[in-house]
Amino acid sequence: MTTPVPVTTTTTITTTTGSGHATIAILAMILSPTFSFLLLTSFFASTSSAQFIPNADAAERNLTVVRSPGNSNVTVSYKVPNGTCTTAFDTQRQYTGWVTIPGDYPTNLFFWFVEAREETESLTLWLNGGPGSSSLYGFFTGNGPCEVVEKGLDRYDTIAREWGWDRASNMLFIDQPNQVGFSYDAPTKGTIDFANDSIEYPPIRNTEYPDWVMANGTFSSGNGSHTSNTTELAALAVWHTVQGFLTTFPQYQPSETGRNSSLGISLFAESYGGRYGPIFAETFEEQNLKRVTGELPLNTTIDVHLSSLGIINGCIDMEVQTPYYPIFASDNTYGYEAISKEEASFYVDTYSSEGGCKDLLQQCTTAITFGDPDGDGDNANVNTICGKARESCLSIESPYFSADRSAYDLAAPYADPFPPMLFLEYLNQAGVQEAIGTPVNYTLSNNAVFYEFADTGDQARDGNIPRLAALINKGIHVGLIYGDRDYICNWLGGEAVSKEIATQAGGEYATRFSAAGYAPIIVNDSYIGGAVRQFGNLSFSRIYQAGHAVPAYQPETAFQVFARIIMGTSISTGKDIDISTYNTTGSANATQTDKLPDDLEPTCYVRAVGGSCNSDAQALFLGEDGDNEGVVINGVLYSSSADWPLAAAETSSTTTSSARPTVTETLTGVYTATTTPDSNDDSAGISLRSSSRLVVGVAGVVALYALIM
Ligand SMILES: *[C@@H]1O[C@H](CO)[C@@H](O)[C@H](O)[C@H]1NC(C)=O
Ligand SMILES: *[C@@H]1O[C@H](CO)[C@@H](O)[C@H](O)[C@H]1NC(C)=O
Ligand SMILES: *[C@@H]1O[C@H](CO)[C@@H](O)[C@H](O)[C@H]1NC(C)=O
Ligand SMILES: *[C@@H]1O[C@H](CO)[C@@H](O)[C@H](O)[C@H]1NC(C)=O
Ligand SMILES: *[C@@H]1O[C@H](CO)[C@@H](O)[C@H](O)[C@H]1NC(C)=O
Ligand SMILES: *[C@@H]1O[C@H](CO)[C@@H](O)[C@H](O)[C@H]1NC(C)=O
Ligand SMILES: *[C@@H]1O[C@H](CO)[C@@H](O)[C@H](O)[C@H]1NC(C)=O
Ligand SMILES: *[C@@H]1O[C@H](CO)[C@@H](O)[C@H](O)[C@H]1NC(C)=O
Ligand SMILES: *[C@@H]1O[C@H](CO)[C@@H](O)[C@H](O)[C@H]1NC(C)=O
Ligand SMILES: *[C@@H]1O[C@H](CO)[C@@H](O)[C@H](O)[C@H]1NC(C)=O
Ligand SMILES: *[C@@H]1O[C@H](CO)[C@@H](O)[C@H](O)[C@H]1NC(C)=O
Ligand SMILES: CC(=O)N[C@H]1CO[C@H](CO)[C@@H](O)[C@@H]1O
């Protein structure tokens, strides 16, 4: 379909800040005189497009299908997603595809692979959380090779991201468990209700609400029995996916055997990834062992030996982290009291009261030991006990929300316009879907998966701290990274987890990790991005001025910390170290205080209503704002088309370019500090956040319910 886009010229200028913190696209557009509200309205009235994705087999979707050499029942279907994501260099190969795994129900796990900018043996797997959230959230909002920008009405562009992690590693993004994002069981036609992300099968007519409230599409079946309901079950499917990918593309195996590479395979995961990371790593190690014992064939499977595990704002252990919700809500380094000190101490007491969160967690641990040690999710008694523990602990998290703050950012209201979410619209364009080869529409979060995991009490199940302790003792770098404005898996809880890991690891870790002081994270010649405690294979990094999805808020800092973890260098400076003896030095606590940045302009994304739309916008969205009808442009709800940022692009581009001189980007390399900058210019983190807004105007965040990303 061709669209009558009334735009005559579009220019994209790429600039960076002086210290190179962000890539900013300025879309300067000269509007033709006929570009008017009327024209827009009539365009939307007349629009009609194929709503469902044509039923087509892999060959018709132009996918190459191969059998996995390791297991002939596993197939890998892939293609080159031509033109969907602009990388820093044209030479970087990309593949999108699905690994199809046999079982009681169809499992097709989606991957998007991007080659590093410069040749490297390093391969990094990336997982977002939820449970039920797509890993393309990280791809398009933070660490992926490109970001989506508006080009015009229903027209998008992608631009290379300066601090994409492809700068240091080959990247493999996986949507999991089954049915999340582009992963699917059986493509099924339905109608999604954006008000609450529920999907009706078969499709229904929208008779009550404005057109934009619902959309037809092709989705996973939504059958909760067709996905994993514990992290352990999810882990095995991902192991198959990694096997399938690496046997199909052996050139990306870190070395012949995988085991001896200095870089190897890294796993980085965010949020609920605090559970995925440790359990997936443990599962990979168990599978490796089966190759040694002969349970798995040596010649057709490969060792997936992790060299690093990174966890970003992870919810790793409910028992250790839960008391820090009330503590952080009342006492944080931004001086923001979301609840009073009295309330906080009440909830800390509640946590450890008889029959409270802590008690129930211990009951869950006992139940698992006897009833479900492997995490199969099939013992009803264990599920009930652990489910109750989870709910009790979540209730200690909830008082914070009375302050109308975002779960992911102390600086933002509950309806948070950051990070930009334009990609949700982009990935549902027919042309993009064809290039990727997908038989299903894209959704950010999957309710069915979320509720399946809730039913087994997965989050309350113990064991991650000993798992992480075992991993560091096996020589795997474990890097915990926490943005200090995040509430939902806040850094105080993360810091407590880091100390507990060291204690449980024993040996030198038990004494030298906690005794190691916090050193500055030197990001470039002028900016200190956080504070890090590092000893041996374990590190804990507090990132300044970052919410939950750290790479979106502080891309350069996140990248440098990522690169230093996988390379085994000093996270403070990037210098080579003897990792077995090195420790950071500095103060005992990370005490830096700062101011919260100003609020961003509210923005309502119709594909992320729960997270991004404030009450006024929700009323407009539901057609309950009296005479005001509103208009949706490129997935964003506006009162009138004149509010669309591109409609006023001439003004904003002038302001922006005078404020930020264009400089030439360097798109490769990692930074090694030779000196320590005196002190931060106060605005570094703050200006980044507001400048990011210019990339795509404004945007929204995720659904109401989960730990999400
Ligand atoms: C498959 O490739 C052919 C030839 O390039 C093209 O004509 C066709 O549109 C493609 N089909 C899909 C579904 O991408
Ligand atoms: C593949 O599936 C067939 C039929 O279900 C089964 O007999 C066979 O053992 C499977 N092969 C592998 C390698 O799992
Ligand atoms: C991908 O795009 C390039 C350049 O635009 C073109 O030469 C190539 O044929 C395309 N490949 C496919 C498979 O469509
Ligand atoms: C979600 O939307 C569906 C369809 O409109 C509706 O039936 C259902 O009641 C809604 N659920 C909630 C929780 O609002
Ligand atoms: C969705 O599909 C159903 C059934 O084909 C149809 O009645 C309905 O009008 C469609 N919805 C939209 C928004 O087009
Ligand atoms: C969901 O899947 C299970 C197992 O495949 C099947 O028995 C059940 O009928 C399905 N439920 C629905 C509503 O289709
Ligand atoms: C690779 O590592 C394994 C296990 O650590 C070791 O047994 C083997 O000798 C190493 N191979 C090479 C070529 O270094
Ligand atoms: C793997 O090893 C087995 C047993 O030694 C052998 O039968 C089989 O042919 C080998 N497979 C491949 C692909 O080399
Ligand atoms: C979780 O999944 C397992 C395996 O599919 C199943 O046996 C079990 O009943 C499920 N648990 C719940 C609570 O649905
Ligand atoms: C699904 O994708 C098609 C394009 O293939 C699009 O027209 C439709 O609006 C999408 N539906 C949803 C719910 O995103
Ligand atoms: C550092 O923080 C811990 C935990 O909050 C506290 O017990 C300790 O007194 C602090 N140490 C210093 C030197 O401030
Ligand atoms: C606790 C600890 O191990 N501290 C050491 C950290 O490293 C410095 C410099 O190498 C040593 O002097 C400390 O003793």
Automatic annotation (TrEMBL):
Its EC number is 3.4.16.-. The keyword Protease applies. The keyword Hydrolase applies. GO terms for biological process: proteolysis. Pfam families: Peptidase_S10. Keywords: Carboxypeptidase, Glycoprotein, Hydrolase, Membrane, Protease, Transmembrane, Transmembrane helix. Belongs to the peptidase S10 family. GO terms for cellular component: fungal-type vacuole. It comes from Cylindrodendrum hubeiense. The chain crosses the membrane at residues 24-45. GO terms for molecular function: serine-type carboxypeptidase activity. This is Carboxypeptidase.
